[in-house]
Write a structure and sequence with these properties.
CATH class of the largest domain in chain B: Alpha Beta
CATH architecture of the largest domain in chain B: 3-Layer(aba) Sandwich
Mean pLDDT of chain B: 94
Largest interface: A-B, 98 and 79 residues
CATH topology of the largest domain in chain B: Rossmann fold
Number of domains of chain A: 2
CATH topology of the largest domain in chain A: Rossmann fold
Mean pLDDT of chain A: 92
Strand order of the largest sheet of chain B: 9-8-7-10-6-1-4-5-11
Largest sheet of chain B: 9 strands, mixed
Number of helices of chain A: 8
CATH superfamily of the largest domain in chain A: HUPs
Number of strands of chain B: 13
Structural class of chain B: alpha/beta
Distance between the termini of chain B: 59 Å
Structural class of chain A: alpha/beta
Radius of gyration of chain A: 22 Å
Oligomer: heterodimer
Helix content of chain A: 25-40%
Radius of gyration of chain B: 21 Å
Strand content of chain A: 25-35%
Helix content of chain B: 25-40%
Strand content of chain B: 25-35%
Largest sheet of chain A: 9 strands, mixed
Low-confidence stretches of chain B: none
Low-confidence stretches of chain A: none
Distance between the termini of chain A: 67 Å
Chain lengths: 325, 256
């Protein structure tokens, strides 16, 4: 079998974009190392996805199938992939950095005496792997040493998914049935559900004013709302604001909330941790207001203002109102 | 229920960071440290479970001497006792190494439940709890917002992506990693701070736990991030920057 394995993940009824990005990262690694890439699908029935993936230039598509692999459980996926990896002996195992991967890949790597290099945003010569530290305020370069497979997961949006082109001849598809017993699956997941009724549609909003920890307390939300109203924008927030109950969770932007792509994203008092950035970096124009000149939000901003939001926002409300009269 | 909460001391969120001389981590002298926020939520969940069902809450942390202050803080919030795995080389250990230390400290306690924050605010690995479960041979669930005790074990609310959730049932003993936001965090009371002074903090070392450091993944160097966009910084008084921004939105972005 081949040298680099990419574990593709089905999200709802398709292979999520982040899995194609993981594949693209693996292909970059494969070029550097002169190795081949194979993809892996794990589930009870994966044929529809396998055909879609086989259209791409790959060594192989491996369907790891067993009735006990749906729904997802950490125990089932860890056991199934452990058996595949022991058999295939890959040099690298690449994952998309999804919630599901975060749930089982660290345990899977530990089973091989390895540590997952999670949340990778860049791959350099060596190879070395860059990931973010201190909520995005620092980059760290990691290297894998010793024998055994190296486990990686790739951050959303870090690698372009459309770098490769469909191949003329479809890749070979193999089916592997792991040995699994019901008693080995110790957790029993229920059906996914979505809490509460949705009253805002941030995903299609054209303008968003988003607020973070910098506002200090709930009493300042109306000030930010006033700016949003003046700009005819939706109000949104980073996770800590919703955790504190200052705004409902349906207004949360980031990996655990909504992914947005408005024409204007105005980030107020948001430092820009990666969990937030993945939810908004598709915005056309980003404006950041923050008192910390080193806040990572400025790295993705088109316009930046370093200052006290309690002084800048009232002035901005006034200026916007004057301009729109 | 006997609950162990694994907590980590991390640099304060607003701390000014400077890269150290070796370029391998940040300069720690002069830094303020605090309890990692997701771990504060794990502690809160443990304290609430104890209030409902009785039992004991033990806080566990690995790190240098300064970690003692964070353990005292957890004791002041209501934990019953603490275990401090004293090690000065946390930065040279990878996630598996650290999890081995924690697992070795947890094993003799035979807890019903081990909780950890979902991820740390400094390294952001988000792996320690899951690896501890693997090393202890226990079932786990991650990204947990709410824990309910059932007759056979636990029913937990797990966060999924994009606003979705699910309930997961699992037997105890188990390991859970706790997502921020599930509960309202408590503050230590004066009485709690006073009581914490007489609570037990047991010191252990890596040597006593017989855990060597054998990392397979190493942080080779750190750097400040490169800008991904060319940012136009607007400077001046609040009213000057406000006017300048409105001009930009009007004539460059054409949004007003």
């Amino acid at each position: 079998m081949s040298d680099i394995l990419v574990v593709m993940e089905q999200q709802q009824d398709r292979i999520g974009r982040i899995s194609w990005e993981a594949l693209s990262a693996a292909q970059r690694l494969a070029q550097q190392l002169g190795q081949a890439v194979s993809t892996v699908l794990v589930g009870s029935e994966t044929s529809a996805f396998a055909d879609a993936i086989a259209a791409w230039p790959l060594g192989k598509v491996v369907r790891v199938e067993h009735p006990l692999l749906a729904p997802y459980t950490a125990d089932g996926f860890t056991l199934a992939l452990q058996q595949l990896i022991e058999e295939a002996r890959p040099t690298y195992v690449v994952f998309p950095h999804t919630y599901q991967v975060r749930d089982y890949a660290p345990a899977l790597a530990a089973r091989f005496g390895q540590v997952l290099i999670g949340d990778v945003v860049d791959i350099g010569a060596g190879p070395v792997f860059t990931r973010q530290l201190l909520q995005g305020r620092l980059n760290g370069v990691y290297r894998h040493s010793g024998d055994g497979p190296c486990f990686l997961s790739v951050q959303a949006g870090a690698f372009r998914a459309d770098e490769s082109t469909p191949s003329a001849s479809p890749a070979e598809i193999a089916i592997i049935t792991p040995t699994l017993e019901p008693a080995q699956i110790r957790t029993h997941p229920g059906e996914p559900f979505r809490g509460g009724t949705q009253t805002v549609d941030l995903g299609s909003a054209q303008r968003i004013v988003s607020v973070g920890r910098g506002i200090k307390d709930a009493a300042s939300i109306p000030l930010i709302q006033e700016l949003a109203t003046a700009l005819d924008a939706e109000l949104a927030a980073s996770r800590p604001i919703c955790d504190s109950g200052w705004l409902p969770i349906e207004r949360q932007v980031g990996s655990s909330g909504h992914t947005v792509a408005p024409k204007l994203y105005l980030a107020i008092g948001i430092s820009g941790a990666i969990q937030h950035l993945v939810g908004m970096k598709g915005s056309q124009c980003v404006v950041a207001i923050n008192k910390d000149p080193d806040a990572p939000i400025f790295e993705v901003a088109d316009y930046g203002i370093v200052g006290d939001l309690f002084e800048v926002v009232p002035a901005l409300i006034e200026a916007v109102k004057a301009a729109r009269q | 229920m006997k609950i162990i909460v694994a907590i980590k001391q991390v640099p304060e969120r607003d701390a000014q960071i400077r890269i150290d001389a070796a370029g391998k981590w940040i300069e720690e002298s002069g830094l303020q440290f605090a309890l990692n926020e997701p771990d504060a939520y794990a502690l809160e969940e443990a304290l609430q479970l104890k209030e409902k069902h009785g039992g004991e809450v033990i806080v566990l942390s690995a790190g240098p001497e300064r970690v003692g202050a964070t353990l005292r803080e957890a004791l002041a919030k209501g934990a019953d006792r603490a275990i401090h795995v004293v090690c000065d080389d946390l930065g040279q250990r990878d996630a598996l190494d650290v999890a081995r230390l924690l697992a070795a400290a947890i094993r003799p306690e035979n807890p019903d439940l081990v909780l950890a924050g979902l991820q740390s605010e400094d390294l952001g690995l988000g792996q320690t709890g899951v690896i501890v479960a693997e090393l202890l041979g226990l079932p786990h669930a991650s990204l947990i917002l709410h824990v309910e005790k059932t007759e056979t074990g636990l029913k937990v609310k797990r966060e999924l992506e994009e606003g979705w959730s699910q309930f997961v049932e699992l037997p105890t003993p188990a390991v859970l990693t706790i997502q921020s936001g599930g509960n309202k965090l408590r503050y230590a009371t004066l009485m709690g701070i006073k009581r914490a002074k007489s609570k037990e903090v047991r010191l252990l070392t890596a040597a006593e736990l017989a855990i060597d450091s054998a990392p397979t993944v190493l942080l080779e160097r750190v750097s400040l991030p490169q800008k991904q966009k060319s940012t136009q910084m607007l400077t001046g008084t609040p009213s000057e920057v406000a006017k300048a921004l409105v001009e930009k939105l009007k004539f460059e972005v054409r949004l007003l």
